[in-house]
């Protein structure tokens, strides 16, 4: 998964789309804060022959996101094809342009188009886009790997702190560790209190002061 997270196209798009600066007042000063991003969920998804289509949905529903009230995106998702994606085997259904819809308009199956791509290709969509796994009427499974980048001020959909064993976490680069939530940003989300001081959570990994699940 680190190769997917740090791929220049996906990682670069996530920074561009999600890390939109905000101006806030702190006392008499107006300052600009750029939010961090984090890995919110990783999954391997396989749709087997005869398995029906998933209900169309928005991934940012996890955050109870409002459209267009919040005026920004909370998630950027990627699906990497492990096997070929076709209309017959359940290639991800997407409604183009649905990221512009408000919350009163619901999705219709007839509006969705199937993702057709070769193994190794990828689909990227925003959390506000209606989509869902398709119906597999073929004779072989359809397999994909998905990952989401979210604003770091939102709770991760998957608890990365408990999902990843310590030895695997420490084997990752600091950049990926921070993307998994082991850090704190300019808006102070994710800090740790030690001796009355607010410190960056990554310090706990550097000095071995945290216990994590072991690999099974």
Write the layout of secondary structure elements.
Elements: H1 2-5, H2 8-18, E1 22-26, E2 29-33, E3 37-47, E4 75-81, E5 93-94, E6 113-114, E7 122-126, E8 131-132, E9 142-151, H3 160-163, H4 166-170, H5 174-179, E10 192-194, E11 197-199, H6 202-206
Antiparallel strand pairs: 1-2, 3-9, 4-7, 4-9, 5-6, 5-8, 10-11
Structure description:
By secondary structure, the chain is an alpha+beta fold. It contains 6 helices and 11 strands. The strands form 4 sheets. It has a 4-stranded antiparallel β-sheet, with helices on one face. Strands 6-5-8 form a 3-stranded antiparallel β-sheet, with no helix packed on it. The two termini are 19 Å apart.
**What fraction of the residues are assigned to beta strands by DSSP?**
25-35%
Q: Sheet bearing the most strands, described?
A: 4 strands, antiparallel
Residue stretches low in confidence (pLDDT < 50, at least 5 long) are none
Distance between the termini: 19 Å
Number of strands: 11
What is the approximate shape? globular
What is the quaternary state of this protein?
A: single chain
How is the largest sheet built, in terms of strand order?
Answer: 3-9-4-7
Structural class: alpha+beta
Whole-number radius of gyration?
A: 19 Å
Question: With helices defined by DSSP (H or I, 4 residues minimum), what is the helix count?
Answer: 6
What is the succession of H and E elements? HHEEEEEEEEEHHHEEH
Measured as a percent range, the helix fraction is 10-25%
- Overall pLDDT level: 93
